[in-house]
Amino acid sequence: MTVEPYARQALAAGRYREAIKHFRTLSASEPPSVWAEGLAAAYRGRALELSAKGMPREALAIWENREWRCPGARPEPEQIALLLELGEYEDALAAYGRLQSDAPPQTLNRARTHLAATYLSEPESLDGLDPDDPVRTHGEAARAALTVYCDGDGGAASTHLQAIPYRSPYRDLVIVLKALIHDQGDGHSAERRLGGIETTSPFAPLAEAARRAGWTEAELLPTFHELSEPQQRLVASLRGWPPQRLALVRTLFHPDAADPSADLATTLVQWRHEVGDTWFRQQRIRLVFHDALSRGIPPTPPEDADELECALLHAWHTEAWHGDDPAELLAAWQAVIEALRAAGEPSAGDGVALRIAAIQRHLADDLALLETPLAAEAETALTESVALDPEHRHGHELLIQRHRACGRLTQARRALDRALARWPEDRTLLQDGLEIALEGEALDDALEFARRILVRDPINRRARHVLHEALVARARAACTEGDPQAARAALDQAEAWAESPPARAQIDRLRTVVDASCKGGHDTVGSPRQAAGEGPALGHALALAVEAQLAGQPPETVLARSGLRPPKRLERDELLDLCRGMQELAQEAPEALDRALECYAPALRRAHRIRTLGLEDFATVCEALRAAGQDELRGRFAREALRHRLEDPLFLVHSLEARYRRGQNGQPSSRELDQLRRAFRRARRDDEKRTAHRAGVLIKQWMPDPATGD
Fold it and tell me: What percent of the chain shows pLDDT beyond 70?
């Protein structure tokens, strides 16, 4: 009896040592096709298990056994990561070389990410890499970005990051640096950005440190001990902590330390010399406030508190107990600003200016004073915050958004230009520029912003879509004004941004409308297929008629000059094609569709008599006419269907809704209401949920509850 079932069961259950034993037994008597793949998987699982237990050398021995006993098993990214961790760089490069020969792209990218993390810190250890390998070619830009960021030049770092492709081994590093550069002060945005990094990435510890650096102290300090020592140092550096403060936090929030909240005041006094008098005073008034807050009483400032400390305590208390009073909030925080300015007017970018700007953003954003009667004062504060703290990108964004919300596009554009002068590569700001240009109908500016966005974000569909729509609107307006040259120029530009077949078909239809509107007499422009696009003729002809209406041209004239005159009679396939076109166009341009359908009204009025129509066809036509708002025609088809299937719930609902939908013909009779109730019950019995729902809506509308009126 073979042990293969036991080996497979052990492997599936994660009992890797047992699985290895059974698969090795199989290897003594069975061909490799039976056991090789399973044994390789068991060795891999055991190696990862030992690594997770903190036994790297033992795990490496398992990886080596896997290579020896499993012919054909390719190296794994985790194996390469372990070799790099242990400093076995030559073996790591050899394994990477074997992996490159036949590994799937996803596996190869995971391995490259581990090599990339090592190349950043020890490039000389990976000298054996091919000069054209992405780890090396992208690594130079990554190291340059990291270096200038550490030197405090976020703008230069952003420039270097632009040279790193999206699918790069350094992609996770790019995400972290962008979160640190662009999302500073915006914790939610940083969380969203960093959330895309998997926990298995070698850059995950860096991402976790960057994430926690944006937390509030109440969130960060109790979990600070969970971070590794390098992560703690990085968090401290990102938050601007001096070494003494890092030492204090480690002491207070060590897992074996006493409850840090037990006697924080005494602890602060003991550490006053190490952490400095300024930080000591800041933390002391925080303790005073939290103690007062927990007891529900106003805070009492320390005896030696200065004007600023007293103002801060009052502002915090006001926010905690009078947060619904905008006037009190504004007055309390303005007192803090006045205390900060007591020593003189601050200069942009200095410590006092940054504190004042933070308060002003807090008033406008966190306390939402922009949505209160004090919006003018809050907006003035927000404007000043940008001048005092010009390097805070979120402040610029808040001001831009405020101007846009108030319809002040000129001021919004000026604020945007100031922000772009500092962050010319920022995609959020470029997107704002695109939206502002479109709102102001400055299509040339919109084109330039879209190009800049797509250089940095080639898959940005929003940029492509809004530009396409704006250029199509410009072409329609030019056609309406009788300027075919301007219309064609706009369509030429729109064609460059059309990325889907429907968008290109729309441009082709509008070109046909422009050509038809410029022809005299009865000249024909193009063939029916050229004018309508690929596919059945009537549905596309209807779309052409709608486009003509949107461009201010008579649909009948455009159809005639395009060789697409509406037929006098419809066949079954033509009717169904026309209905498919109605369904597609009903949501996009209902008013234009209503006018375009006038061209087909004579044929549609007779179409209910087509002998080849089945009940499913009648249902399709009724749904299309309902979507298009053609109630009179819908009633004709519904009544004809009821001649074939008496009191069918679907067609009864269509017939009654079409007759009385817009308040025409009065109210339904008692007989019709009885029919509707029967249709409702039958639809529920037959599980026709949509029909039952529509019938129920009509019953509530026409037969309100006498007790409630509903």
Answer: 91
For residue 221, give both structure tokens.
């300090």
**Are 478 and 490 spatial neighbours (Cβ–Cβ below 8 Å)?**
yes
Q: Which two tokens stand for residue 242?
A: 């001096």
Angle between the N-to-C axes of helices 171-182 and 204-213, in degrees from 0 to 180, rounded to the nearest 10: 10
Domain 4-214 belongs to what topology? 1.25.40
pLDDT in tens, 324-374: 899 999 999 999 999 999 988 899 988 899 999 999 999 999 899 999 999
Helix axes 16-27, 4-12, angle to 10 degrees: 150
**Residues in contact with 51: Cβ distance below 8 Å, sequence separation at least 6, in sequence order:** 59, 78, 82
Number of CB atoms found within 10 A of residue 110's CB? 22
Measured on CA atoms in the order 482, 485, 490, 494, is the torsion positive or negative?
positive
Domain ranges of the chain: 4-214
Helix axes 307-321, 326-340, angle to 10 degrees: 160
Q: How far apart are CA 439 and CA 436, in angstroms?
A: 5
Worst-scoring range by mean pLDDT, 195-204, 384-393, 515-524, 637-646?
A: 515-524
What is the SS3 assignment for 237? helix
Least Cα distance to 283 among 298, 261, 255 occurs for 261
Looking at residue 473, its pLDDT comes to 87
Concatenating the DSSP letter of every residue in 401-445 gives: HHHHHTT-HHHHHHHHHHHHHH-TT-HHHHHHHHHHHHHTT-HHH
pLDDT digits (tens, 9 = 90+) for 178-206: 888 876 655 566 777 787 788 888 988 88
Residue 559 identity (one-letter amino acid): L
Q: Residue 119 pLDDT > 80, yes or no?
A: yes
Tell me, what's the pLDDT at 535? Answer: 42
The model's pTM is: 0.57
Whether 400 and 416 have beta carbons less than 8 Å apart is answered as yes
How distant, in Å, are the alpha carbons of 6, 298, 300, 317, 352 from that of 309?
Answer: 72, 14, 11, 12, 14
Cβ atoms within 10 Å, residue 13: 10
Residue 485 CB neighbour total at 10 angstroms: 10
Helices marked H in 195-271? 204-213, 217-220, 229-238, 243-252, 264-270
Q: What is the C-alpha to C-alpha distance for residues 682 and 648, in angstroms, rounded to an integer? A: 9
63-109 pLDDT per residue, tens: 999 988 887 788 999 999 999 989 999 999 999 988 888 888 888 99
pLDDT at 457: 76
Handedness of CA 523, 526, 527, 531 (dihedral sign): negative
Mean pLDDT of 392-407: 92
Residues whose CB is less than 8 angstroms from the CB of residue 595 and which lie 6 or more positions away in sequence, other chains included: 549, 555
Buried b / exposed e over 583-605, threshold 16 CB at 10 Å, is bbbbeebeebbebbbebbeebbe
The DSSP output letter for 186 is: -
How many other C-beta atoms lie within 10 A of the C-beta of residue 244? Answer: 14
